[in-house]
Amino acid sequence: MKKNIYTPIAIAMLAMGHAGFAQDSSRVSQLNTVVVTATKFAKKQSETGKVLTVIGREQIERNIGRSVSDVLNEQAGIVINGVGSNPGKNKELYFRGATSQYTTILLDGIPAADATGLTGNAIDLRFMPVDLIERIEILRGTQSTLYGADAIAGVINIITKKGGVKPISGFGNLTWGSNRSLKGTVGLRGHQENVDYNVSFTHFETDGISEAAPHDTVTNPQFDKDGYKQNAVMVNLGIQATEQLKLQPFFVYSDYKSSYDGGPFVDALKNTNKSDLIHTGIRGIYDLNGKGEIRANFGYQKVTRVDESQWGVLPLDGRSYFADVYGHYSINDWFQVLAGVEYRKAELIDTVNFLVNKFSARSLFNTSPYVSVFIKNLHGFSFEAGGRYTLHSKFGNNFTYSLNPSYLVSDKLKLFVNISSGFKAPTLTALYASYGDENLKAEKATSYEAGFQTFLIKDKLDLRVVGFKRDIKDVIAYIGNKYMNFNKQNDKGIEVELAVHPAKGLDVKVFYAYVEGQVTTRAGTKDTTYNNLVRRPNHSGGLNIAYQVLPKVLVSTNIRQVGTRNDLYFPPWPNPSQNVELKAYTIWDMYAEYRFSDNGRLFFNANNITNNKKYWEIYGYSVQGFNMQAGISFSL
Q: Is the model's pLDDT at 195 over the cut of 90?
């Protein structure tokens, strides 16, 4: 096991040793990278101790033929279950061992929520084509002070593409792939006087593979393929109303239709799901003469789902409302303050799935003022302290806090500590669905992080090591067809990330992540504690090597190692559930591109090039073997 887990690190070391450290000007240090997610306003990474990763435009472009789940799955501490399965299979996001309901996903800073409860409150990743994305910022650790409930494991801010430089320009891409896959994007963007815009449309369809895997005992299985179709439209506008005021209306529509099977090892011919997302609203930014900003955001999301199977038709209609007004101001060169107030409402409408009062709307809402103060690089010392007071419609008043000191030594070593608390209310489905419980308690978390980040060899080497611990009281779990509270959940782990630029045109990135988790619950008169991170590996690692072979030719390879996990298998009734060990596996992908002009390129993705089918992501469900995508991307 150890040999497999550390293979990516060993390969990376060999690559660095072979190439040597050439004296070119390229650097991997992101100290001066300006990010917005860490503090809700623009700040250099050197000025915050938050653990943040930026997936830039170039890396996004290398994944045009793939999905946002593929991109996230290559990051330390994140595992997307289902990323190697049928494209229509739901994608389960695990962030530092926590399920998707503990991660806040933002679209340009505004929560993209799903009140239907399929993925907790987080948005279904299948709604978001990677073609619409400019970059992604991943903020690790509990962030409830700045981002409210649900931000227990972390925050993923998906930043979409905005207007262009010319008055009008076109762009697009076209991709062909395995299993009769076809994806295309076409759009217009531009900037004219005080208005900028970006409008795009994406279509994706594939025959897919059988979602369920045939059991070993089945001879000559005839499982049908489960297809998937998606359409997405995005409109981003920017209006410079005055010299100081900018308005940014936005609209995203996405739908998909997928066929799915009857469960692990069970084929089904007629099961279909149709899901739709509307995400719309407006952002306002008022500049305070360069000393700060006042921002106002409003977002509305509507998710509808119609699920048809042998058990009948299940319609779901979930709606989420978000409003946020906050401002930040620089008192002097080293002291800043941020204050705001936020309102959220989740609503589940017209569903037959409620425990009582069927066909009636259910809702939860909260209002929460918050404030944070920042010391910015005072002789290398930076510090953030903040608090939020949440007034919840069902779960009363709750206070959360964050403390984040960091110290930068000669621009070469950053030391940091994060201590924060979080609050999470149960979802509407956990409370009111037929398998819910109206008496559930809210979950409360305390999170600890400590680590260092160092920049060596003229900033050609960036090493970050982080240890974390997360304790959740009254954690909610779905056990025995019922939601219930356990006493507590305790998770801890370590993440090691290394980025190196050993030679001109060569970049190497490697990571290793370890996480373990235990739940404690009352059994009779005694507490019982056991490991419960189902489908989540204790060990995972990855290696990415990119090399600019020629000025117009780039090749890269990515290796992902996932350690052993456990899964719960529910065989046909009346057989009892089974705890199944899933063996470790390794997936190897490759990418190549040729830029035939400044505005166009040909690309090729080869995924799972060893054609590894002898592993389980989810027990009883198929995985794709070797598959590929090839296409063209252009701008005019």
A: yes
Angstrom distance (rounded) from CA 46 to CA 413: 10
Whether the predicted model's global pTM rises above the 0.90 cut: yes
Tokens for 147, please give them: 């981002």
Q: Tell me 120's DSSP state.
A: T
Q: Are strands 169-177 and 154-160 parallel, antiparallel or unpaired?
A: unpaired
For 317-459, where are the alpha helices, taking DSSP H only?
428-432
Token pair of 542 as six digits: 């990855």
Could you give the CA distance from residue 270 to residue 259 in angstroms, rounded to a whole number? Answer: 7
Whether residue 273 contacts residue 102, with contact meaning beta carbons closer than 8 Å, is answered with no
The tens digit of pLDDT for each residue in 136-177 reads 999 999 999 999 988 999 999 999 999 988 999 999 999 999
Residue 525 has pLDDT above 90, yes or no: no
The predicted pLDDT at position 577 comes to 83
**Cα 588-594-600 angle, rounded to 5 deg:** 125
Amino acid making up residue 634: F
For residue range 349-394, what is the model confidence (pLDDT) as tens digits? 865 555 555 546 789 999 999 999 999 989 999 999 999 999 999 9
Q: How far is CA 357 from CA 353, 433, 441, in A?
A: 10, 10, 21
Residue 521: CB atoms within 10 A of its CB come to 18
d(CA 112, CA 536): 24
- Separation CA 337–CA 123 (nearest Å): 31
Burial degree of 269 (CB within 10 A; 0-12, 13-18, 19+): exposed
- For residue 532, give the amino acid letter: N
Cα–Cα distance, 200 to 411 (Å, whole number): 41
Q: How many residues make up the chain in this entry? A: 636
> 3-state class of 143 per DSSP?
coil
Query: Phi and psi for 129 in degrees, rounded to 5?
Result: -65, 140
For 3, the 3-state DSSP assignment is helix
**Residue 269 structure tokens:** 């011919």
Strand partners, 236: 198, 250
Dump pLDDT digits (tens) for 115-132.
Answer: 887 666 778 899 999 999
CA distance 353 to 306: 12
Alpha carbon dihedral 168, 173, 174, 176, in 10-degree steps, equals -170
Which is it for strands 506-523 and 539-550: parallel, antiparallel or unpaired?
A: antiparallel
State the burial class of residue 143 (Cβ atoms within 10 Å of its Cβ: 0-12, 13-18, 19+): buried
Mean pLDDT of 410-418: 91
Tokens encoding 152: 């227990």
pLDDT at 23 over 50: no
For the chain, the farthest-separated pair of C-alpha atoms sits apart, in whole angstroms, at 74
Query: Which string of DSSP letters, residue by residue, matches 96-127?
Result: TTB-GGGEEEEETTEE-B-TT-TTTTBPPGGG
Preceding omega of 574 cis (within 30 degrees of 0)? yes
* SS3 annotation, 468-532: EEEEEECCEEECCCCEEECCEEEEEEEEEEEEEEEECCEEEEEEEEEEEEEEEEEECCEEEEEEC
Q: From start to end of 193-288, where are the E strands?
A: 195-206, 228-240, 245-259, 272-287
Helix runs in 304-383, H state only = none
Q: Which long-range contacts (CB under 8 A, 24 or more apart) does 18-24 make?
A: 19/502, 19/503, 19/506, 20/502, 20/503, 21/457, 21/460, 21/502, 21/503, 22/502, 22/503, 22/504, 23/458, 24/503, 24/504
Three-class secondary structure of residue 378 per DSSP: strand
Token pair recorded at residue 255: 């739908």
Token pair for 585 = 């596996």
Give the integer Cα–Cα distance in Å for 363 and 428. Answer: 7
How far apart are alpha carbons 479 and 489 in whole angstroms? 15
Whether the CB-CB separation of 104 and 123 falls below 8 Å is answered with no
